[in-house]
Structure formats: C-alpha cells, structure tokens
Amino acid sequence: MKIINVGRDFSEHPIGRYRSDGPESGEAFREDVLIPALQELGPDERITVILDDGVDGYGSSFLVEAFAGVVKVGVMEAEALLDRLDFQYTDADFEFFADKIRQYLQEADFGCERGDA
After folding, report:
1. Residues 6+ apart with CB under 8 A from 81
2. Is 114 helix (H, G, I), strand (E, B) or coil?
3. What's the pLDDT score for residue 115?
4. CA distance 109 to 117
5. Which residues have CB under 8 Å from 22's CB, separation 6+?
6. Residues 98, 66: contact at Cβ < 8 Å?
7. Are 26 and 17 a contacting pair, CB within 8 Å?
8. pLDDT by residue (tens digit) across 61-95?
9. Are 60 and 20 in contact (CB under 8 A)?
C-alpha cells in the first residue's frame, strides 16, 4: 500500500485547476504526485490518499483536475482508478470531499482531453 498525504506530500493549500493557476494546482498534483504513484503500484496494490492532514479544504476545480483528470487524459478508466484509491480522513467534514472525488470520477469521460486526438 502506498500513502499520499496531500498536505505533507504536496501542499497544505491545494488550489486551482491548471499549472497556470500556480504550483499547488490539481494538474500539478495529478502529474507530479498521483500518476507517478499509480505507475509504481503492483497489480493488487492500492493508494491511500490522506485528505485532511494540514489541509483546510479543496475547491472543486482542484479535485476535478487532480482526480478526474487522470480519466480525462486517458491514463486510467474511472472504475479502475476507484479500485486503486482509498480516501482517509479523521475530520468527518472531509467525507464531503471524498464523495465529490468519487462523483467527479464517475462523471469523467475517458480520454476526452488527450493531446493526440
């Protein structure tokens, strides 16, 4: 099992969709943290994403780009990604963000933002 602690491994202030929004964007998280972690997983391994350690909250633009972006750029289908991710939090308010991530993944169209189209 691999652990990604968003607040410690990426930023305590994750914000924005694209790199042009700043270094703490969803695109930066997806490309620099999440996709490399997924690529390192063995066949039956999972990633636990700790959502609330040092982070006050998330905007929808960050969550969509960081998580659903994996599906949109054609790295992995939504169900396969959901099978690889577990969300952990001690603050009950963060269940909202975990649910939103799942929702955004289910709504994402595989490969709709590929650069090779």
Report:
1. 38, 67, 70, 71, 105
2. coil
3. 61
4. 14
5. 15, 16
6. no
7. yes
8. 999 999 999 999 999 999 999 999 999 999 999 99
9. no
Q: Output the six-digit token pair for 48.
A: 């636990």
> Rounded CA gap, 95 and 114, in Å?
30
- In angstroms, the CA 44 to CA 63 distance is 25
- The domains of the chain are located at 2-107
Structure tokens at 90: 């001690």
Q: Which residues contact 24 (CB under 8 A, 6 or more apart)?
A: 10, 11, 13, 14, 15, 16
C-beta of residue 45 within 8 angstroms of C-beta of residue 73? no
Q: Which long-range contacts (CB under 8 A, 24 or more apart) does 80-83 make?
A: 81/38, 81/105, 83/46
Angle at 72 between CA 71 and CA 77, to 5 degrees: 25
- Provide the token pair at 33: 């943290």
Give average pLDDT by consecutive 10-residue segment, the chain, 117 residues.
Answer: 97 98 98 98 97 98 98 97 98 98 97 71
Q: Which residues is 87 bridged to in the sheet?
A: 49
